[in-house]
Amino acid sequence: MSRTEVLDVAGLTKSFTLHNIDGRSVVALDGVDLTVKAGEHVALAGSSGAGKSSLLKCVYRTYLPSSGSVVLVDEHGERIDLLSLSEREIVALRGRRLGYVSQFLRSQPRRTALQIVADAAVMRGVVRGDAVAMAEMALNRLRLDRSLWDVHASVLSGGERQRVNLAAGTVSPPRLLLLDEPVSALDPANRVAALDLIGSLTESGVAVLSVFHDLEAMERLASRVVLMRAGRVIEDGPPTEVLQLELGVAR
Amino acid sequence: MSLIESLLEPEQDDLIMDAGATREIRRAILTAIAVPGYQVPFGSREMPVARGWGSGGLQVTMALIGSDDVVKVIDQGDDEGVNAVNLRRLITRASGAVETTEVSEATIVQTRHRVPEGGLEVGQILVLQVPEPEPLRGVERDVRELERMHAEADYSRMWVSLYEDRVRNGVITRTTGYPCMVGGRYVISTTPIPRWDVPLLHRSPFLSIFGAGRAKRIYAIPPDTDVEPMTFEDVPFEVEENRGAVCRRCGSDRSFLVATPSSTDGVDLWACSDTSWCNRRSGIDSP
Amino acid sequence: MNQIDVEPEVLEVSALGRAYGPVDDGVIARTGPLAGTSKCATTGTVLAAWDVSFAVAAGEALGVIGESGSGKSTVMRCIAGDVVPSAGTVTLRRSDGSFATITEMSPAEVRGLRVHDLAIVHQNPADGLDLRITAGGNIADPLTAAGWRNFGSIRERAGELLRRTEVPLERMDDPVGAFSGGMRQRVQLARALANNPSVVLLDEPTTGLDASVAAGVLDLIRSLLEEFSIAAVVVSHDFSVIEMLTQRCVVMQHGRVVEHGLTDQLLEDPIHPYSQRLVGAARS
């Protein structure tokens, strides 16, 4: 099946100049080429410091890449050069076409769980009435108890917050979804439900680029695994192959 | 005449205002009439009455009056108050004008507190003695800021003050000096008249001139000018209530009544503030 | 060209500068971050702010970060129309759609703008409120200035705004002087929103408030900005405030903008040495 390309990263480098230490440079990404297609789930693997999160952040523009290109291909096939966009254009894009779910729920202490998820849908263009219904469905799917829906996010536990986060990131899903350890705080039962949800996203055509520290999740969800080391791509292939390699190296 | 000789000239007691002062005040009055409600500054002169006792009103009257005028002076509505009597004597002696207590006969009426009951007619002039002309004084102290507020018609501080009054007291409580918008442009204080008389100013047939000697300001309301009490649309402007009281002399319940101490049992009785109006009524109605 | 719809700009600051003293190329070169000062050693000229540019759209909040002396307050005052700049312009799109160049307006025109289109929330609520007047009265002020003349309507609107800013309605008729700092700040917010301004400037909105009180006020500000689609400029030295309220920000030092970017990018990947120092200090 020929799938359309959604993300095209080419020659991406990122180094940090630590002016306030001794001006040294730290290289996080050292020339990364990567593509993700619609309906594809690409999982980044590698030990910590390999550059996985840095890659996600460079795509989302939380990090400013040092060189290379990051191109998002939209629904019309139009190639959008993310690095040439103005700040306001990136904000608009993030609202609608580019999603990012990290481990941490960004500070919105007094919105309720339901409101946070509904807000995210509204940001992506859904009408408020529908957004609430979608939010309820998403929270249901992630097994968040109904009694917690109207509770302020700040009083939720880590695992509950993570599920709200995931719901917000995936409701009315964006074209490209970046996931950074989105289930790390979940107990086994909730984890299964979450992975299930993520799996269904790719089925509906969302392009997913993820970081999981847990091999089982990667095996289960990813259509491809990209192994990184020292800011570079070492291997890029089907999960079983790549992970065997990684496990082999680790042993 | 040398300087020494002019200084040694006997003082002319009857001349309380010289020609120069008269001209200046007339110019100020003309400006005031041309810009209704605008407080025109003028060089307030020394008068035989102390400041705060009608020197401003007196200067206005003296600038306007001539020997063919008829002048009525009232104090709290009363022609026979000590103040009114003194002023009347001063004015007539200095100008040669004739005095009267009859409103219909007067060309100029000078007042310390009331508009004659029922108002004046076309061609008559009402001169009001103003203790403090600035309507915004309660909400702002700074002189430059006051000037700016009037210049820019920025009366929001006054509106807030009215709002607060209404909130605190249920009604707007100002008794005298009720702020009014003149000609849709300037806000004036209607001091010295009570609320009762404020409606008489709106599109009046007569000319009103307000003189404040201590503050050195003159302002005017020409005939047929809109004078609207500042109030919220849904808080109607109300005049004082009589609450069933009637005048003990003429029996009226529709004039402005004031309490007069009773000599017999210490209970105040009400009587018309405008004594000549009351007398006329008693004269007609007395059995 | 990329097909990304962005909201039109509501506030545009263009090459804004405020100098105290004569300015020439030399003065410009001898001041700023590279020179390490905003005062020219030769002429004594202080360039409190120079060459500052940014734009804000409806529904967007932009942060201006800097330490004291950075010029952020000067920029704020120029936008507010309190200070006439030496260079550059500030243009605002009014609620009625027309454009106003604040920097060319007379003080009377600026006052009109401040009633209808541009509101300021001061660091110290006492600067933005009359403490002797009731909470409702402080809101009645901009309403009457905008021509509201119906007492009932004024009270209704004031009540609605106080409810929205979470001030207990039973305190509506209490003088603001009797309120706590956090409550005063809420009244200031209610007052700022009275005439549905298109732009709101927030100057250190929670400085001086207890942490828990500040959190509540920040949260409120955030939801108000979203709800009313306001273009906001938030001046602060506090990163938690900037993070909570803004999507983009500029960093100022010695009167110049040294870096600008998305707020999350500035906090996680500051590029300019000064930005790195500020963020590093905040994180520790």
Strand order of the largest sheet of chain A: 6-7-8-3-9-10
Low-confidence stretches of chain A: none
Broad CATH class of the largest domain in chain B: Alpha Beta
Overall 3D geometry of chain A?
globular
Run of helices and strands of chain B: HHEHEHEEEHHEEEEEEEH
For this structure, what is the CATH homologous superfamily of the domain at 1-84 and 209-251 in chain A?
P-loop containing nucleotide triphosphate hydrolases
CATH architecture of the domain at 1-84 and 209-251 in chain A: 3-Layer(aba) Sandwich
User: What radius of gyration of chain B results from the CA coordinates?
Assistant: 20 Å
Would you give an account of this structure?
The complex is a heterotrimer of chains A (251), B (287) and C (284). With 251 residues, chain A is an alpha/beta fold. Chain A has a domain at 1-84 and 209-251: 3-Layer(aba) Sandwich (Rossmann fold). Helix content of chain A is 37%, strand content 27%. Chain A has helices at residues 52-60, 87-96, 113-123, 128-141, 158-170, 188-203, 215-221, 239-250; strands at 5-18, 24-37, 41-45, 67-73, 79-81, 98-101, 176-180, 207-211, 224-229, 232-237. In chain A, strands 6-7-8-3-9-10 form a 6-stranded mixed sheet, with helices on both faces. In chain A, strands 2-1-4-5 form a 4-stranded antiparallel sheet, with helices on one face. In chain A, helix 3 crosses helix 4 and helix 3 runs parallel beside helix 5. The longest helix of chain A has 16 residues, at 188-203. The mean pLDDT of chain A is 89. By secondary structure, chain B is of the alpha/beta class. Chain B starts with a helix and ends with a helix. In chain B, helix 2 packs across helix 3 (55-64). Chain B is built from 7 helices and 12 strands. Chain B has helices at 3-8, 19-34, 55-64, 82-95, 143-151, 156-169, 275-285; strands at residues 40-41, 70-74, 98-99, 108-111, 125-129, 179-182, 186-189, 207-212, 217-221, 227-229, 257-260, 269-272. Chain B is globular and about 65 Å long. Chain B has 2 domains: 19-138 and 177-229, 3-Layer(aba) Sandwich (Rossmann fold); 242-287. The mean pLDDT of chain B is 86. The relative contact order of chain B is 0.15. By secondary structure, chain C is α/β, with parallel strands linked by helices. The termini of chain C are far apart. The longest helix of chain C has 17 residues, at 211-227. In chain C, strand 9 (248-253) and strand 10 (256-262) form a beta hairpin. Chain C has helices at residues 25-29, 72-80, 107-116, 125-128, 135-145, 151-164, 181-193, 211-227, 239-245, 263-268, 273-283; strands at residues 9-20, 46-57, 61-65, 87-93, 99-101, 118-121, 199-203, 231-236, 248-253, 256-262. The interface between B and C is medium-sized, with 15 and 18 residues.
